[in-house]
Amino acid sequence: MMRSLFSGVSGLKTHQTRMDVIGNNIANVNTTAYKAQNMVFSDLLYQQTQAASGANADTGRGGINARQIGLGAKSAAINTAITRQGNAQSTNNPWDVMISGEAFFIVSSGSQNFFTRDGSFTIDGAGNLVMASTGYRVMGWQVDEETGDIRSDVVSALQVMNQKNMTAPAEATTKGISAGILDKNDTDVHSAAGLVRTFSFFDQLGYKYTAKISFHAMSEDGNYYVELDDILNEDSVSLVQYYNLSNINQIATFGNGGTMPDVTKVYSVPQGVTYTPASGTTAANFKVDYSFADALKGFAANPMMSLAGDSVKIVKVGSAELTDTTPIPDGTVAATGGNNVTVEGTTALSEEVLKTEYGLVRIKEGTNKGKYYYSDKTTNPPTDVYLDENSAAADWAKVLQKLTGDAGAGGGTATSGAVTVSSVEMDENGELTVSFRADFEPEKELLYNAKTGKLSETIEATEANNATILERVYGLKESETMKYTINYIAPDDGQASITLKESYKGNMLVFDTKSGEFKYIGSNDQVAATLDFAASATDLTGANVDLGHFHDTSIDFSTMRNVNNGKTSTVAMDSGDGSSNNLGAGRKEGALIGVEISQDGKIRASYDNGLTKVLGQIAVTKFANASGLAKMGNNLYSTTMNSGEFDGVGIDITSDGKGTMESGVLEMSNVDLAGEFTEMITTQRGFQANSRIITTSDSMLEELVNLKR
Fold it and tell me: Residue 651 in 3-state DSSP?
């Protein structure tokens, strides 16, 4: 009888304990990162009134089971659902961090490490990252000062907002990259100025400068040189002027230049040139033919001339009118610098050409539909002018008689390229047929052959004319870096032996002519050239100029290519080494404008100079049996003998690909209210049933006592 009483008592106690667990779960339904618990029951001791016996073959009796009477229930275990992820709650606070996965933050009280899933962090007065609830410091890994990378070591407290992290100090540019395509057919590469590109860099004080660097083609395919032309400050003032110096090389050099081996070639007389050997008293000479575009100033740039094509004919040289009936001595007329050349021609001007070249807009609707309009700015105020097929040639001429390079209406002076319109016809599609005359000044003293329609020049094959012969006969134009010497001219056919003495400035840039890939800059196997700054300079007054704030900069050219790109080069120069961190780019001093925590726990600071810097990384840890951790209150856990130990270093949360961190979010409690209320109902029923055991046993004992009466 007494056994049932004690069984009932044990049942009451265990259900009461279970209710305590349920009550705690419900109380923590809104506790950040709280992990719900559940209680497991087991039966208690058993009293054996008869032992079990086995079957007896001799007597033929079978075996019987033991007779055991249970003594109630007990609490077997209280388990924590520590690996079950709670839902996410957005807070928009960048210091709130949620762990996805089974890891734990590491925090320190100063004397002991604890572990938590509660990522509600904040910054304390000393700039430390701490738990908002306890002030315990969040532990992680620090940054290696030399490399800027995270150093995985024994965890230490993360001091995020210390003084050195509030600003990003100015840093000089030490590295640069020149990348893209250098097209050998790009006209800029062959010009005197070269293909000019800019390279921006910082000095050690954070001031920004722009270097003008030019690329020049050399005589041999695949060979170029790169030189420093100038350096401008932030106000676009040349440092030569700013420091009162004589040239930019007093401040910096980009290679020392050099001289190529002499090259001697034999050149034949090119097409368009006639060579006449000496005969009797006649000297040997070259006769060079020129197109109008090459011979007449402004001809090539005049849209009316280019559209007229072969219809353009010379009708007058100086005062000499050229007609079919005009006798011309020896078939030539001199066209000297004092004798302009007059041409006539006819051209068709479309609606599009009239708009783009002359500023005429055709009206599409209204009373002036079909007419061309322009604003005559020669009057005050400007006058609106409308022109159509009925307009006089003189009215059209006001806008069509434009000088080369002029915009809008006007023009018509005696300057080379002035056009005189003689007649204009307009068709229904708005296209004009224009007859014109134009005066041009010859580029040089030329002869015009009315029978062939060509301008030509005769150059006597003498040593005194060698410079003229090089340029106008053989097309070899000397420059500062290319000097030509005529060794001899063959008297019978005009072939010339010519030696090129070629020098270069700055650095040689060489490409493989088979693949177009970069070979070297400066010298063999060299992939980078250095913008080398002087420590000081002497200005034009003799005063010393300190240049110590500049830093030598290595510019990498190895990604450049020398391939066809439609005569257009895409070369671009940027500071930095081109890596993800763009090391060596330099910067001005910057102020902190934001901090963020990435998915791997790295804390990154952003500065107003464009720099992003890693300040540290929040480390985490995992346990072999996280359920074995002991709850310490305040959302903290500590290790036990059954949880596994913390190694003191921790891990990167993304190292196994199963975990991440998310800022601006907190993990909610994983308590399931529906489940807890269901558990509460069954616990209440169990408690009631056990209380009935006690009351019933008590009634039975009362009946037993009453037998004596």
Answer: strand
Check pLDDT > 70 for residue 334: no
At 451, the pLDDT band (50, 70, 90 cuts) reads low
Q: Which tokens go with 241?
A: 């002027």
The more confident residue out of 31 and 316 is 31
Kindly report whether the peptide bond that precedes residue 381 is cis, defined as omega within 30 degrees of 0.
yes
Angle subtended at Cα 665 by Cα 660 and Cα 667, rounded to the nearest 5 degrees: 75
Residues in a beta bridge with 517: 561
- Phi/psi for 680 (5° steps) reads -65, -40
Q: What is the mean pLDDT of the chain?
A: 88
**DSSP string covering 339-390, please?**
S-EEEEEEEEE-HHHHHHHH--EE--SSTTTT-EEEEETTSSS-EEEEE-TT
Q: Where are the beta strands (DSSP E) in 512-589?
A: 518-521, 528-533, 536-538, 544-546, 553-556, 560-561, 572-575
Q: CA–CA separation, 614 vs 142, rounded Å? A: 9
Which uninterrupted H or E stretch holds 11? helix 2-27
| pLDDT exceeds cutoff 90 at 579 | no
Q: How far apart are CA 106 and CA 121, in angstroms?
A: 12
- Going by their DSSP bridges, the two strands 167-168 and 121-123 should be labelled as unpaired
Contacts of 245 (CB under 8 A, 6+ apart): 239, 251, 537, 539, 540, 545
- Report the 10 Å Cβ neighbour count for 642: 12
